[in-house]
User: Which sequence fits this backbone?
């Protein structure tokens, strides 16, 4: 039951911070007993790395949709580019799904 800081992100996720204090079960210097307790919670105004990646991929997906809509308005001469953008959107959707699944696994692991 050693004590650590906890960093809480704006998105609600958290991560362990620095080691703060030994418990009475661990006598070796530099070692911890393996059971972590929170000494203090430090609020962080940023989102976690996973949420940043999700936001980036969603912005990229939105940009691809805008490009497709622009190409459709200009006429049917960009058919290959439109098809390639649809494939890009499909792959981005899969990556977003994987990142969201990973985030949910992390939340359920605690």
Assistant:
């Amino acid at each position: 039951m050693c004590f650590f800081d906890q960093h809480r992100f704006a998105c609600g996720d958290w991560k362990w911070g620095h080691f703060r204090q030994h418990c009475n079960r661990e006598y070796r210097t530099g070692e911890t007993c393996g059971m972590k307790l929170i000494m203090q919670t430090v609020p962080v105004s940023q989102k976690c790395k996973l949420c940043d990646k999700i936001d980036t991929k969603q912005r990229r997906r939105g940009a691809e949709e805008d490009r497709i809509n622009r190409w459709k308005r200009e006429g049917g001469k960009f058919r290959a580019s439109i098809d390639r953008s649809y494939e890009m959107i499909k792959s981005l959707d899969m990556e977003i799904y994987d990142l969201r699944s990973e985030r949910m696994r992390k939340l359920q692991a605690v």
